[in-house]
């Protein structure tokens, strides 16, 4: 960027700093003027109230006195009362001097002038202080705006940066000749292109990681679908050969095909859910949800569907509310309950609970007394299609916890997991409560 452009940018930033400092000083002067006016009004009101309710509030102000010649006071009560009434209607205070004359003192204007003078002096001192603080405000604004100044200069420098035709050809040549391998990176060997080089290499790394995840997902999905398809195909062939004549083969084949079809349907539904979620097509309908009622529903469903385990639910005494999609949260809890039932022996307990966590967060908890998990397995338990060696014999797709994590992530929540081998697992879903949002 040229020197003139630098000077233009600096001049513009300096002008902004000056305007902000002026605005700050004017605001302080306005605040001080309002405060001074307020206190002047308060002092006047207090003085007037004191004058009305005190017995004698007359104060002589010789410099404001005006003398009037009247007859010396002769002790006549009637004439004195009459003179007092006249003077009181004029709002003047009267007292006698040594010469025997009555002196008339203005009882309102003098205090008002004192209060006005005091307020004007105070405001003048404050305004002088505000004007003196102008340089301090400029330094303060400069310090606050320093990062923005640097950013503005950098942006202007980038906007004025122009690539030569040779550099364009260099970029095009390097991109065209880039090998499609995981280790290949762009290198322009040009100082002016360092920023573009870093940005493009970071973009390439993200694209390659995304491609690896997609390839792994497709391979795992293909592997999971291959097994039920092979089973269905085998039993279909068995039916074609012996099923028409052998009822035992017929019944066995029909049962196996039904089971594998159900398993494959469940797997495909899970794959579609994750695919829609990754593509951003899953709609999250957020509303106020009482988690205690929702968990009560899951508890009753579990009692009805699974009679082989003992379910317990610790119901809170008051509602536990969050802003969430009730259907998705219930789906995540069902996944945890299904896993707990899968890895827990019959007649053993599965405990459900809801409550407030520390910091006004809320939790949904599923605790079992199953086989538990190793620490190494906990680190990978939310990966798609991941199943530990101990869990492979229990069946499943390896996608349930991945779906639960996707749902919890969409609600800005997280999991807390405690597990011990042969003792069981406790999984908590932590969400933000309505009280915290409010």
Strand content: 5-15%
Structural class: alpha+beta
Order of helices and strands, N to C?
HEHEEHHHHHEHEEHEEHHEEH
How far do the termini sit from each other? 49 Å
Total helices: the number is: 12
Query: What's the total count of β strands?
Result: 10
* Order of neighbouring strands in the sheet with most strands: 5-7-8-10-9
Count of discrete structural domains: 3
Sketch the major β-sheet: 5 strands, mixed
Global Rg: 43 Å
Spans of at least 5 consecutive residues whose pLDDT stays below 50 are 55-77, 86-106
Principal-axes geometry comes out as: flat
Mean pLDDT: 76
Q: Helicity, in percent?
A: 55-70%
Give a written overview of the molecule.
By secondary structure, this protein is α+β, with helices and mostly antiparallel strands. The chain has 3 domains: 3-155, no CATH class; 238-278; 287-437, 2-Layer Sandwich (Heat Shock Protein 90). Helices cover 59% and strands 13% of the residues. It is built from 12 helices and 10 strands. The strands form 3 sheets. A 5-stranded mixed β-sheet has the order 5-7-8-10-9. A hairpin with a 3-residue loop joins strand 9 (414-420) and strand 10 (424-432). The longest helix is centred in the N-terminal third of the chain and has 51 residues, at 3-53.
């Amino acid at each position: 960027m040229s020197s003139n452009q630098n000077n233009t940018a600096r001049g513009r930033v300096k002008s902004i700093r000056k305007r902000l400092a002026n605005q700050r000083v004017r605001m302080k002067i306005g605040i001080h003027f309002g405060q001074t006016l307020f206190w002047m009004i308060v002092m006047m009101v207090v003085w007037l109230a004191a004058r009305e309710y005190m017995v004698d509030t007359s104060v002589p102000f010789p410099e404001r006195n005006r003398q009037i010649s009247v007859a010396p006071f002769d002790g006549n009560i009637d004439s004195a009362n009459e003179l007092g009434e006249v003077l009181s209607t004029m709002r003047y205070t009267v007292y006698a001097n040594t010469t025997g004359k009555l002196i008339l003192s203005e009882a309102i204007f003098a205090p008002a002038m004192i209060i006005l003078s005091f307020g004007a002096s105070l405001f003048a001192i404050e305004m002088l202080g505000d004007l003196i603080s102008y340089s301090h405000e400029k330094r303060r604004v400069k310090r606050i705006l320093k990062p923005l100044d640097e950013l503005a200069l950098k942006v202007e420098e980038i906007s004025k940066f122009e690539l030569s035709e040779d550099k364009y050809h260099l970029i095009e040549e390097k991109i065209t000749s880039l090998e499609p391998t995981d280790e290949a990176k762009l290198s322009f060997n040009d100082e002016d292109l360092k920023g573009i080089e870093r940005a493009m290499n970071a973009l390439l790394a993200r694209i390659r990681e995304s491609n690896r995840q997609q390839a792994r997902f497709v391979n795992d999905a293909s592997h999971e679908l291959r097994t039920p398809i092979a089973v269905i195909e085998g039993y279909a062939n068995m039916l074609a050969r012996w099923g028409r004549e052998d009822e035992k083969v017929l019944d066995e084949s029909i049962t196996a095909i039904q089971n594998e079809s159900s398993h494959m349907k469940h797997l495909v539904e899970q794959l579609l859910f994750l695919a829609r979620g990754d593509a951003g097509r899953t709609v999250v309908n957020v509303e106020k949800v009482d988690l205690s009622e929702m968990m009560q529903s899951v508890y009753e469903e579990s009692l009805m569907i699974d009679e082989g385990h003992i379910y317990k639910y610790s119901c809170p005494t008051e509602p536990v509310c969050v802003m969430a999609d009730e259907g998705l949260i219930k789906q995540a809890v069902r996944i945890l309950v299904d896993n707990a039932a899968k890895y827990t022996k019959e007649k053993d307990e599965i405990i459900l609970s809801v409550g407030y966590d520390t910091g006004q967060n809320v939790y949904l908890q599923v605790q079992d007394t199953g086989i538990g998990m190793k620490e190494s397995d906990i680190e990978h338990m939310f990966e798609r299609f991941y199943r530990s060696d101990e869990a492979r014999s229990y069946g499943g797709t390896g996608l349930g916890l991945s779906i639960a994590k996707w749902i919890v992530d969409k609600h800005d929540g997280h999991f807390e997991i405690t597990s011990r081998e042969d003792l069981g697992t406790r999984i908590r879903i932590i969400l933000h409560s309505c009280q915290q949002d409010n």
